[in-house]
Design goal:
The complex is a heterodimer. By secondary structure, chain A is an alpha/beta fold. By secondary structure, chain B is of the alpha/beta class. Chain B is about 35% helix and about 15% strand. In chain B, the strands form two sheets. A six-stranded mixed sheet of chain B has the order 3-2-1-4-6-5. Classes of the chains: A alpha/beta, B alpha/beta.
């Protein structure tokens, strides 16, 4: 144990309270490879700052004997490796948060895993940290994982890094080895743009240079790790940036009070200041800054407040209030870096939800500019992204959103991507470039609109989306519906999967990515036809729910009618009108829906037709009935 | 600049932000009120988040029937004073069967707390439940998300939690699923006491030292709160000056000897404390990894 501990005795109450007002908070994360000693280092910091209680220490001594890897010594890693599975496997599998304090600062440590498959957890830890402690084992030096962790830290916005050269005792406290690793690391992260990098030789296990200078490294004259963490200045200039506040919640207890609740993302606000609503540009004056502890004259970045305005203007959740002289971009297209977090791959063209500040809108990844190899930082081409991939992408949203570049604002430049069906958080992104002019795209205002075209035809336009397995009977029923509509004097058209693949989509194959694009194009063509006033039938297998939902979004409410042609796979295989099942079963066709590629059943289609219960003509009549019921045809 | 926020103010702001996100994104939130000090702080933050409105969701207390009488009195006084909407839920079936902490140990906790909570959330269709848990309390809590996702069976899968970035929380769920939300995740026990002292928040008097009838059982000081306490042969309650650091069901909650009878004295005691907060909770010692196990089953 260190001799420096006497100086860290608890302060009397008065001193504690007097200091609390000045004590800031530093959030940092530790990262490194599996055996670099992260958990040991955190355990050591907790132990040496007296944050380990006696009963916890007793439990630790018991656990060390049972699971420990440190011989007769206390295994500090056991303090922080919380979950049962981790203790048994001796690895850290999730982000754990730890708390400790000195009389100069409070600290929150995110302990993040080292293995590649948990890159996403490291990104999670990094997103709320001001500083990263990157551990390397002095024996092994800078590894590809070291580079990867540094890259992710930089990507998620960390500007300050500590290179902790751990296990320095195992290289005989060698100054030359330390200097070599420091130089390697400086070269490796040169392009990442950290604003501070401090290298410290230490031994987490024995405490050298952790909280005080070690006599074993007289050649090292820099700060101890804790000394550096207590003093490093990481506060971004959030206060001097222009005012921004995303509105979280509109507070209306009665007709006389309308307040806008939110956390100030940047800048300082005073009563009487002018503010503007980013999307509408309308402005007003701050009447009150309301808190339960009393109204404030002013409030700065990080404050959770409720604002009232002098004028009644339309503001709701998702709007961003800004200083009128320094507006933010309001855009629906931008470029971003993204970390993909799930095994379900990202496909351009598929519809996702994007949550940025307090706004959630749907949109698509239009393209992947390149994937970034996180070990070499090389840019490589990619058609899709898998778990832990990092890439630069283009995004297109269905509505404009107030945003800033991530480099200018974590609050208005960071976003998450949510899967529409599973609701999982599947990606995290950082806005890098906002497409100029994407704010101002105005649809060409046609003199003759959709309603006028449809009225001339005596119908309301619609897309009937026939989905089902190959051989289910989609085209058969669609053709019958087409004939019946024609006989009724209605204007209709069929987009058939096979026919469209011969022309419009002949460049596409049957990979998951190509299937997504196939559906996107079909939906877009159908949308144009609906715009022209037609009743269009789309007869596509369209196996993925999310793609059908994305198609649905291109249409106005009531225009999209999903028709599930439900035929059991065995029946389809028996019918096999094109001989495709036989070839798929023989392995001659790959990625065949129902055989070696999935079909996701519609959850709630507008029409569910079971072909085993009625013949095609009866089912076609049911489609016509449905069109009448919905008032699409007379 | 002088606008730089103190550590505690920053925690307060972040908690309010979380509470407002839930109110904005979830259909039917509820505040799971446990009457303890953390609940007092969380209640204050919830009031702050929506001031001058009252909170747009109710409070829920799972009453095991074995809480200290002073806790129940404090609960009812708090609700009256603030004009809040409180739902009290008890596992009536368990009560009828006489499930109690003396005879039934871990089964008691499971039945009267975990199962009762799950039933109450289901009965009222709550899809988000605020709790006062903190990451510094216990090792498996340290890995809990702020928005902790529960399956339709209300189970917690530590390997399948949504990653959380910056202050962006994903509150989207399917019908039947729910979220437990922990706005105090980043607070420490000392922060809680410091906040209570700064704002002079009302707390249950059991936190203050006073002479109370005590028996010593397995090294733990148990306060005899009512006539249902089963005394073992040779046990006679004696008056000792004690207080609690953490409150739960009285037969399962250990007191400690202390003379701290005011908030400043409590904070001063905290500054030199050498044992952890949950050291007095008997239910955490049942078996190895017991908190993680209880959480997986749906315990708060």
């Amino acid at each position: 144990m260190s001799s420096d501990l006497a100086a860290r005795e608890p302060l009397p109450l008065e001193q504690f309270l007097a200091r609390q007002e000045q004590i800031g908070l530093l959030r940092f994360l530790t990262c490194g490879s599996v055996d670099d000693g992260k958990s040991t280092l955190i355990g050591r910091l907790l132990y040496d700052t007296k944050l380990i209680f006696d009963d916890q220490l007793a439990a630790l001594q018991r656990d060390s004997a049972r699971h420990g890897t440190a011989g007769e010594h206390i295994d500090f890693a056991l303090l922080v490796d919380g979950l049962e599975a981790e203790r048994e496997q001796g690895i850290t599998i999730d982000v754990a948060y730890r708390f400790f304090a000195t009389d100069r600062r409070r600290f929150i440590v995110a302990d993040t895993p080292g293995h590649e498959q948990y890159t996403r957890n490291m990104a999670t830890g990094a997103s709320n940290a001001d500083l990263a402690v990157v551990l390397v084992d002095a024996r092994h030096g800078v590894l590809s994982q070291t580079r990867r962790h540094s890259f992710i830290a930089a990507l998620l916005g960390i500007r300050h890094v500590v290179l902790a050269v751990n296990k320095i005792d195992l290289v005989d406290f060698s100054e030359a080895r330390f200097a070599e690793i420091r130089a390697d690391y400086a070269r490796a992260v040169e392009s990442l743009g950290f604003s501070s990098m401090v290298a410290i030789p230490l031994s987490a296990r024995f405490g050298d240079n952790v909280i005080s200078a070690s006599p074993q490294t007289p050649w090292y004259t820099g700060p101890s790790l804790l000394g550096h963490l207590e003093t490093v200045d990481v506060d971004a200039a959030a206060m001097v940036r222009p005012f921004r506040m995303p509105v979280q919640w509109v507070n209306r207890p009665n007709l006389d009070f309308r307040g806008y609740a939110g956390t100030i993302a940047a800048g300082t606000l005073r009563v009487g200041d002018r503010v503007a609503v980013a999307a509408s540009g309308r402005s007003s004056t701050i009447a009150r800054i309301v808190t339960m502890d009393g109204d404030l004259d002013r409030a700065g970045a990080g404050s959770a407040v409720t604002l009232t305005l002098a004028d009644q203007i339309d503001i709701s959740r998702g709007d961003v209030l800004t200083a009128p002289g320094a507006p933010v971009a309001v855009a629906d297209k931008f470029d971003a870096h993204v970390v993909w977090l799930t095994e379900q791959r990202l496909f351009p063209g598929r519809s996702y939800l994007f949550k940025l500040a307090t706004r959630t809108v749907s949109g698509t990844v239009t393209h992947i500019r390149h994937r970034i190899d996180v070990n070499t930082f090389a840019e490589v081409p990619a058609a899709t992204l898998g778990m832990n991939d990092v890439a630069r992408i283009g995004v297109s949203l269905i509505a404009p959103v107030a945003m800033e570049r991530f480099a200018d604002s974590r609050e208005l430049g960071g976003f998450i991507i949510i899967d529409r069906l599973t609701n999982a958080t599947v990606g995290v992104g950082m806005v890098e470039a906002i497409t100029p002019g994407s704010t101002n795209i105005v649809w060409h205002d046609m003199a003759v609109d959709k309603d006028a075209r449809a009225a001339l035809k005596g119908q309301r336009p619609a897309a009937l989306w026939f989905t089902g397995l190959s051989g289910a009977g989609k085209s058969t029923i669609a053709n019958l519906v087409d004939r019946k509509l024609h006989a009724l004097g209605r204007h209709s058209y069929i987009l058939d999967g096979d026919n469209v693949r011969h022309g419009l989509n002949r460049d596409l194959g049957f990979s998951e990515a190509d299937r997504v694009e196939n559906i996107r194009r079909a939906a877009e063509a159908a949308r144009l036809m609906v715009d022209a006033g037609l009743i269009v039938m789309v007869s596509f297998i369209s196996p993925y729910r999310s793609d059908r939902e994305a198609a649905r979004e291109r249409f106005d409410a009531g225009e999209f009618i999903e028709v599930f042609i439900d035929t059991p796979i065995d029946e389809c295989r028996r019918r096999d009108p094109k001989g495709l099942y036989a070839r798929a079963d023989a392995g001659q066709i790959r990625n065949f829906t129902g055989v070696d590629a999935p079909y996701e059943h519609p959850a709630s289609p507008e029409l569910h037709l079971l072909t085993t219960e009625a013949d095609a003509d009866t089912l076609a009549d049911r489609v016509i009935e449905e069109l009448r019921r919905r008032g699409l045809i007379a | 600049m002088s606008d730089r926020l103190s550590h505690l103010k920053r925690l307060e702001n972040e908690s309010i932000h979380i509470i407002r996100e839930v109110a904005a994104e979830c259909q039917a939130p509820v505040f799971l009120y446990s009457i303890g000090k953390d609940s007092s702080v969380l209640l204050d933050l919830i009031l702050k988040a929506f001031h001058p409105s009252l909170p747009p969701f109710p409070m829920l207390h799972i009453d095991t029937g074995w809480k200290f009488r002073e806790m129940i009195a404090f609960r009812d006084a708090t609700v009256r004073r603030l004009g809040l909407d409180l739902i009290v839920h008890t596992n009536e079936e368990g009560r009828r069967q006489g499930i109690n902490p003396f005879d039934h140990g871990a089964f008691y906790t499971h039945t009267m707390k975990t199962e009762a909570l799950k039933a109450a959330l289901k009965l009222h269709g709550f899809d988000a439940a605020f709790g006062g848990a903190r990451r510094d309390e216990e090792k498996s809590r340290a890995k809990e998300r702020i928005f902790s996702f529960r399956t339709a069976n209300q189970e917690w899968d530590p390997k399948n939690q949504r990653p959380e970035f910056w202050h962006l929380y994903n509150g989207r769920i399917h019908k039947g699923e729910s979220i437990r939300v922990f706005p105090l995740s980043n607070w420490t026990e000392l922060d809680i006491w410091h906040y209570i002292m700064l704002h002079d928040l009302p707390i249950v008097p059991l936190y203050f030292a006073a002479p109370r009838p005590v028996v010593v059982r397995d090294g733990t000081l148990i306060v005899v709160d009512d006539e249902r306490m089963r005394l073992e042969p040779g046990e006679t309650p004696e008056q000792r000056v004690v207080r609690f650091r953490s409150l739960g069901c009285y037969p399962l909650t250990g007191a400690h000897e202390s003379s701290a009878a005011t908030l400043p004295e409590i904070v001063a005691e905290m500054l030199i404390a050498r044992t952890s907060e949950r050291g007095g909770r008997l239910i955490d010692r049942d078996e190895k990894d017991s908190m993680e196990k209880k959480k997986r089953e749906g315990y708060f």
